[in-house]
Amino acid sequence: MKLMFASDIHGSLPATERVLSLFVQSEAQWLVILGDVLNHGPRNALPEGYAPAQVAEKLNPFASRIIAVRGNCDSEVDQMLLQFPMTAPWQQVLLEKCRLFLTHGHLFGADNLPALAAGDVLIYGHTHIPVAEKRGEIYHFNPGSVSIPKGGNPASYGMLDENTLSVIALNDQQVIAQIAINP
User: Fold this and answer.
1) Coil, strand or helix: which one is 101?
2) Edge-to-edge strands of the sheet including 175-180?
3) pTM (global) more than 0.85
4) Pair 123, 110: CB distance under 8 Å
């Protein structure tokens, strides 16, 4: 299975257009959006090309191929613009050897783990900082932010291809971080 992960779009039209172009090119089965889709939130500066309604218009044609969770900046009003469900606080994807626990990161995260089994993967956004590592028996993966990167990192997204999770720079496609899960 091939999955693409995008987090913290925050209403950026250029970031959305780039993500969707890469999604089509990647031939991934699903685009997983890890929250904070349309709004920038009061703690963030406006991202480049802030246009929440147009972001919704760009995402909606892909609705049948999107799995999404709610971020701390998402609201029920946002759901009215989007044609895919995005108000669940978490989702799960079951793989042959493990479970992917998908969440934004403000309710469950590295410091507040859900109940996970050895070898499971916590996939979250929220911090805008890329992570691909194993902590104890649990894998942690954060694709960073496609619109408002932090910590000196470039805008980035994530890919799961076979058993490898990669964080990839949005603009130059350089791999920022990578880890093999349950090899």
Assistant:
1) strand
2) 66-68, 30-33, 2-6, 156-161, 164-169, 175-180
3) yes
4) no
What are φ and ψ of residue 120, in 5° steps? -70, 165
**99: amino acid identity, one letter:** R
Residues 6+ apart with CB under 8 A from 105: 34, 35, 124, 125, 126, 127, 142
Report in angstroms the alpha-carbon separations of 74 from 3, 91, 173.
22, 16, 28
Instruction: Tell me the C-alpha distance between 135 and 115, whole Å.
Output: 14
pLDDT in tens, 91-122: 999 999 999 999 999 999 999 999 999 999 99
3 state DSSP class of 68: strand
